[in-house]
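Journal club prep, shared notes

We agreed each person brings one worked example of a sequence with its structure written out as tokens. Mine is F-box domain-containing protein. I'm keeping it raw so we can talk through how to read the token line rather than staring at a rendered picture. Sequence first:
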Amino acid sequence: MPPPELCHDLLVDILTRLPPDDPGCLFRASLVCTAWRALLTSPEFARHYREVHRTPPLLGFFENHDTVTPWFAPSSPAASPFPPLFPDRRDLHVLDSRHGLVLLRNPIRITEHDHAVSLIVWDPVGRRQWESFPPPDFASTILCDVGVVACAADDCDHLGCHGSPFLVGYVGTDYRSAHASVFSSETNSWSPVVSCPHPDIEILRGQPKPLIGNAVYFICEYHPNEYFILCFDLFSRKLSKFDGPPIHRYKYALMKTEEGVLGCASMQGSRLRLWLTQTGADGAVTWMRRRVVDLHRLLPSNSFFRVIGFEDRVGAFYLTTDDGVTTVDLKSGQVKKMSDSNIVPYQSVPYISFYTPDQTVEVAEGGRWEEVGDKEEEADEKVEQQVEKAVHELFTKGSKALKDEDFVGALDCKRRILEIRLGFFLSTCYLPLLLQSLAEACVHMDCWIQCSN
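Then the structure, token by token:
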């Protein structure tokens, strides 16, 4: 006799206790039976799951590189349903991630002539993107650019912003001025451009861009070892500037402090140094040292660590070394290695969001959201069918050549099969299928060799 089914409320209570920082747990639970899958994929469960846990988990990092396509380094085990599917296979660069959204730039900027052609707002969990749109006109004349994305819904708790209206702030410098504009998904247009003149100004890429209230903050350089902080208000559309902390620009990262104000963090050996800002009645901003934390008991002594960010909702500092990214939670003392790479990224962008199975949402009427991957997967299926047909024909031809003792022709068929499959799977960037295909090709070769003997 099968065991009795759990009552609905008890089942919900059990599944809600699965950890949000390992999305594979919910995904595997959804495979138990159709009843569990129906529960876990329902909007009601997703809403209840977010309300219970409250703090969105860190799912991993998007890592930007100057010479290769960016990739996603998940924080959960390899069995996780993450990493997500990229919107397409163009040269994309991750500019920012916030409120479950990711801002992408096309193309990757390698030289000063690689100006942005289009921007994409991507929802990895909802598996959809906002139709690509051009940047503001000044993008074709600037030398350095950065961008931010943020949910623009009123009274949103930012626990599940999928489908909400958003803003994109785009800022660039041309050595004479900083220019900025805001794109609104509700008006589908850019705001008038505002500028902040300053000689030899250069906004720094690859740095955290904290959003505090309505304002975003960036580090700018104007002479060697001379720099300041640029502030852009996404709602008032104002640009302003003030002095940075008395630290070398590459040794600190801007952050939103636990007090909700602008601060920064830097590493000096094993010591984590924290600063915060205070704004006077006259609007002048001053920097004050908040505290120093010695991490020598938490971190290996043979590595050099640099702060690349802090997430106030997760409560973790992000540190990078030559072999990946590490998170440090000062309250719990927990240290976790998040990524392990032989290619050091110049920027690691954290992705923070809840994930529950099948969280795709319907596209709102009048919007420009579109599902990610469907059209591309259909095209891949047609190409794969053509590839398999060609491989089958070559296999038949090669088998016949072996029977006729035409070994040169048989070897030529083997070579062409490998070239066809290798070319297809490299174009799809799907390594597991590539390895599987090569393994199958090796089996075919063994069969031919045995037949020839």
